[in-house]
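Same chain as my last thread, 340 residues:
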Amino acid sequence: MNKRLVVSFAVVGLAHVWAPAFAQAQTPPAPGFDVKRPEIVHFINDVAERDGMSRHELRTLLRQAQPQQKILDLMNRPIEKVAPWWEYRERFLTSERITLGSQFWNDHKESLERIAATYQVPPEYLVAIIGVETFYGRQTGRFRVVDALATLAFDYPQRGAYFRAELEQFLLLARENKLNPLTTLGSYAGAMGVPQFMPSAYRRFSVDADSDKKRDLWGDWGDIFASVANYLKEYGWVPGAPVLAEVRLDPDPTFQIEPHNLELTETIDGLATHGVRVDGDLPGSTPVVLISAEQHDGPAYRVGFKNFYVITRYNNSARYAMAVYDLAQAVAQRVHGAPK
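reply #2:
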C-alpha cells in the first residue's frame, strides 16, 4: 500500500494557495530579500507577465524568503566535486545503505518491479538513485525551497539565470500542485521529494502512477518510482544495455583523460589503441567515456556506456553515477544472491 503525505489547500488561483503561508509568516525571523533590487524587480515583472501571477503576491513571498550563506558555501564545495572517488564511494556504499536498500526493495517489491518492467529500467537503479539521493526517503532536505532557490537566483551569479528559471518553475509547481511555498522543504540547491527533482524536472518528468490526479514525490511510492523511471527513460535509457565496465591498462598506455568530460567521445577500439582494454565482449565500435576512479593506492579507471551517461543527467557527476551503479549492483546482489 502506498504511504501518502496528505496536504490540503483551498485552491482558487495563486492567492488562495499562498494565503495561509502569508498569514503565518508576517514577521520572518531574519531579514528577507530586498524586493527593490533591480534584478528582483525584473524577475517579478517577468514572472507576473509570463505566468499571470500577482506582483503583490510575488513581492510578499520574496520578502519572506531568506538569503542563506550556508547554501552558497555548500554550492562552492559539493562533495562530488571535491572528494576523490574512493572517499565518495565509501560515503554511499556502506553496509547499512546496502542492507536498507534490500529491505526497501522487498518492502515495495510489487510496485517497484511492476513500474520497472513498464519503463524497462531495472529496479536496482530506481532503488540506488533513491538510496543515494535521500537514503530511501529518510533525508529529503531541511532547507526551505524558496530560500534555496532565491538565494541562488539572486546571490549566486555563476548560475543565477539557471536558478531564476528554477525559482519560476517552483512558483508554477506550487500553484499547480497546491504546495505551500513557504513550508516546502528540499536540498540546499532546491531539489525536492524522495527523488530530489528540481522544480523543472518535477513539472516535466513526474508521473501520476495511480491516476489520483496528484504527482506526490514525498509520500506516494508509485509516483516516486514511476517518476524516476520516466526521468531515465526520457533521457534515453537503453533496456538491457550495460552501464559501466572495468578496464585493464597495457604496460605503457598512452591515453589522456578529460576529467570533466561525460560525453561518449571514445570507442572501445579507440581506447585499445592507447593501451586501455575494456572488459567484456562488446563491439569495438561501442561508444564509451573513460572515467577516473581513483583508489587509496593510486589512479584507476573505468568506462561508462550510454546508460552511464543517462544517470549523469540526474546529477552531472561521474562519481555520482558510479556510486549509483555500485550501489545498484550491491543491492541487487543482496536481494537476488548474484550480481545483475
